[in-house]
Amino acid sequence: MSSQVKRRGTDTEIASLIALITAFVTFAIIFALSAAQASLELVAVFSAAGIIIALLFLTWLAFYAPFSPFNRVK
Predict the structure, then answer these.
(1) Which are the contacts of 30, defined by CB distance < 8 A and separation ≥ 6?
(2) What is the distance between the alpha carbons of residues 51 and 37, in angstroms, rounded to a whole number?
(3) For residue 29, which of 53, 12, 56 has the smallest C-alpha distance?
(4) Distance in angstroms between the alpha carbons of the first and the last residue of the chain
(5) What is the pLDDT of residues 3-60, one digit of tens each?
(6) Where exactly are the structural domains of the chain?
(7) CB 53 within 8 Å of CB 26
(8) Which contacts (CB < 8 Å, 24+ apart) does range 44-50 have?
(9) Which pTM value belongs to this model?
(10) Which residues contact 65 (CB under 8 A, 6 or more apart)?
């Protein structure tokens, strides 16, 4: 029997954590700008950035996450 050592904090886990934190920070900035009634252009830029980050994270979840049924590399 070979014992497998599980590594903590693999590259994909760290990348997903960074993407998730960045998305939350981006949305927090959007809400802060909206509450402060900043210019709509600034809110639109941060909204677009937040949506792009969220889509990238969801793409990772769908195709590259270790628990994804579509992940071919296991």
Answers:
(1) 43, 46, 47, 50
(2) 20
(3) 53
(4) 20
(5) 555 555 576 677 777 777 877 887 787 777 777 776 777 777 877 887 888 888 778 7
(6) 11-36
(7) yes
(8) 50/23, 50/26
(9) 0.47
(10) 12, 16, 71
Identity of residue 29: I
Query: How far out from the chain centre does Cα 6 lie?
Result: 23
Angle subtended at Cα 49 by Cα 46 and Cα 50, rounded to the nearest 5 degrees: 85
SS3 category, 66: coil
Q: Which residues of 28-67 are buried (b: 16+ CB within 10 A; e: fewer)?
A: ebbeebeeeeeeeeebeebbebbeebbeebeebeeeebee
Residue 18, token pair as written in the block: 């960074």
